[in-house]
Give the backbone structure.
Amino acid sequence: MTPLMGATRKPGLAIFVLTVSVYFLFGSRERPWGDARLMYEVAERMVTRGAIDISTEWPPMSHKGADGKIYSQYSLGPSLVSIPGILLRNGVSALAPAAKEFTLILTSHIASALLGGLTCVLFFGMCRRLGASVRVAMISALVLGFSTAIFVYARYPFSEILQAACFTGFIAELQRVTEGPDRRRALALGAWGGALLHAKLIYALSLAGGGVFLMVALWRRREALLRVSAAAMVTFLPLLLLAALYNHARWGSPFSSGYEDTLRQMDERTWAGLWGLLFSPGKSLFLYSPPLVLGIFALPTLIRKRPLVAACLTLTVLPVVLFYSRFLSWSGDYCYGPRYLTAVVPVLLVPIAPWLESLAEQRNARRVAWLALGALAAAGLLVQALGNAFYWDHYIRIAMKARTEWLGQPNRAGAAVPERDRGHCDSCFEDMHGHQWLPAFSPIEGHAWLLRHVPFGHDWKEAEKDAPWRRYTTLELDIEEPYARARLDWWGLLWIGDYPRLWGIGVVLLVVMCASTLFGMTLFLGSVSNRSTTSSLGETAPRRQPG
């Protein structure tokens, strides 16, 4: 065992146990909806019938393939990770048929919680390799896990948390391979690259950027570059072949992704999409993951001290961000925050840990930096708590109804995405501009408003009196229908209210989750306070080449 492994294994375990336990403890009561429903349905079909076609047609997210059957357009990865939960669900349901729906909801969130914990552990490892002490790296991992959008997406079976885990793993292996190119690391790099492709095909852009970075970083060690490239292909090519076969099985061609209709919407101005993703009232990356604000101050230190790492992040993150900034539906709605940027949140936060470590000799600057991180982490935790209080669809539908009542019915005749006779367009500007651009319909403030009323049983008229839009209008807006559907989103309410006959099972699960959380906290605090693990990487690991 290397010194680095010995110094990070126990802290890594502590981070995983604590984050996963908290994700379970504060888990969702909602079954897979929207995009997640299609991904989950594919997994169900694979388990029950060994097939990949589904029954839900929801263009363009699912539509008919070359054989006339309906298929999901999403990659295979988000469905594969749901299979263990479905197997567990089927086993429990066979023993207790009355708990079938209850079990479906709980087991559908297992993969996302585990992937959230894995993302935090991978992030911790990256911080350590960049020179952060165990203590700083562990605290930074906790900030990532609970004060950024990772917390929200670790509670739902959408694909974003899988993307975040795979993207973080891929970048971490790129970092390790360039510091010490060997066959084992190269094999891991290929596997992470293939997994990232199966998380979402758009990350082919990041894989290409990673390939360019690898060539630049190892150009002077060309023999090592060839060895690493050859070994990475051993694990990457089978996964690439699987993706091609999956495309062929659905759409009749290995080169057809199913996203053809979606990709026709690449007409947004880059500056407008970037502004929306970074600074809009409803979707700003910094509003939904406040600690990333500190990353701006940390970047110069990373560029100066670890230019290769900075280049790696640029070549892998920027292509994806620029792609989504050109997408008319850059917001990723329906969702909470800038969903399409969830995957890059961990690597954008990474510079903070080594930056904090670099201030070790500057007492006043270090104190200010920690105070700033604490304030931003507290703000981030509040934002995630509000996001987790309700499933995001509830407020989105309320905001859409209020906007129509107040500002009028939009003309959807020329909408970029057909409304499919549903009375609204899921991600079109006509229906979503208020949610994205108008402060009156900010989801963060909207969830805070709902939290003041829904738990206390207030009716829609009472709640509407102090709704966020009331700052701008004295009109009473009729939100009765969507408001009636809003409910707190905590798994405990399944057995407290939805399925009261299962209260015994619920109590046992709650006790287990609380015990697991306390155990995780004990492990975490023990690792943070252990003096033998608080030194920086340079004091615990062999010297590595700079960059």
